[in-house]
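FORM 12-B: Structure-to-Sequence Request
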């Protein structure tokens, strides 16, 4: 029963972090459109993060809405949410790994706390956090399914 209790709240946490990621990436797009992008690859990766964060926020909020409104929709089922989470985790790990490769050469030592370098590191850190939350939510769903099947007793028990 614990899996069903925490599952929607994990999705809510995923959605809230994705909304933060959308805001940070949208600010990066606005800023670098004005001053010029460091590299074309950096531009593409920021857009990938923006897409992934938008995708995550949209579907995670839809999942929470369907669960709390009581509407049984395929995407609100364990299978539907697991499919969404696998796709989303894949998008996050690809975006974060490629972005890490891009900003690995940046040296933020001595930079102010609020600087483009630190904010780029925050984008990467939020990407890895989203990936970890997706994996934790998948594992929680699998654990819940496994424990509910193990505790199932057929109708022949009285």
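FORM 12-B RESPONSE
SEQUENCE OUT:
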């Amino acid at each position: 029963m614990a899996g069903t209790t925490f599952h929607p709240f994990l999705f809510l946490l995923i959605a809230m972090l994705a909304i933060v990621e959308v805001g940070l990436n949208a600010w990066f797009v606005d800023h670098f459109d004005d001053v010029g992008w460091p590299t074309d690859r950096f531009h593409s990766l920021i857009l990938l993060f923006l897409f992934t964060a938008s995708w995550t926020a949209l579907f995670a909020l839809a999942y929470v809405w369907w669960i709390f409104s009581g509407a049984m929709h395929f995407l609100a089922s364990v299978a539907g949410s697991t499919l969404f989470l696998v796709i989303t985790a894949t998008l996050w790990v690809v975006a974060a790994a490629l972005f890490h490769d891009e900003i690995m050469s940046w040296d933020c030592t001595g930079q102010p706390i609020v600087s483009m370098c630190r904010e780029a590191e925050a984008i990467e850190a939020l990407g890895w956090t989203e990936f970890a939350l997706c994996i934790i939510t998948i594992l929680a769903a699998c654990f819940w399914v496994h424990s509910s099947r193990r505790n199932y007793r057929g109708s022949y028990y009285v």
